[in-house]
Amino acid sequence: MKKSTNILVSDPDSPFCNVLCKVLTKEGYTVTCVPNAHQALQHLQAAEYTFVIVNIADRKPENLALLQSFFEHAKKARVIVTTNFQDEAFSQKNISMGAIGCFMKPFKREQILTAIEQSLK
């Protein structure tokens, strides 16, 4: 199943994004990494993805609107949100919007891998 699993990762933290993409690639997933959410939205409009992992750095209204755009453009893709802050209400809002997970940095790679693998079952 992994060979047909395409993952789009969007995170402005380039070193973090590169490490996450390497981990996912090593696990057998096909991964596309982009440095910002706007480029990720362009990729979502051009290609099909199984998962989208997007970083929301803060709770600014424009970031929340951008997150809503991900859910609208993700088609069949399942969305995982990463954040730079701890806020249970924000995490629950993401889940209620349709995210399969919301993880605060730094998180363990197993958390992302488990969310992906459980969603593929």
What do these coordinates show?
α1 (14-26) links the parallel β1 and β2 (30-34). The protein has 121 residues and is an alpha/beta fold. The protein is globular. The protein has five helices and five strands.
Q: Provide the structure class.
A: alpha/beta
Number of strand elements: 5
Report the CATH topology name: Rossmann fold
CATH class reads Alpha Beta
Low-confidence stretches: none
The N- to C-terminal Cα distance equals 10 Å
What count of helical segments does DSSP give?
5
Corresponding CATH superfamily: Response regulator
Helix content: 40-55%
Overall tally of domains? 1
Provide the residue-averaged pLDDT. Answer: 87
The largest β sheet comes out as: 5 strands, parallel
- Fraction in beta strands: 15-25%
SSE string, helices as H and strands as E:
EHEHEHEHEH
Shape: globular
CATH architect. name: 3-Layer(aba) Sandwich
> What spatial order of strands do you see in the largest sheet?
2-1-3-4-5
Q: What is the gyration radius calculated from CA atoms?
A: 13 Å
List the helices and strands and how they pair.
Layout: E1 6-10, H1 14-26, E2 30-34, H2 37-46, E3 51-56, H3 61-73, E4 78-83, H4 88-97, E5 101-104, H5 109-120
Parallel strand pairs: 1-2, 1-3, 3-4, 4-5
Helix pairs in contact: 2-3
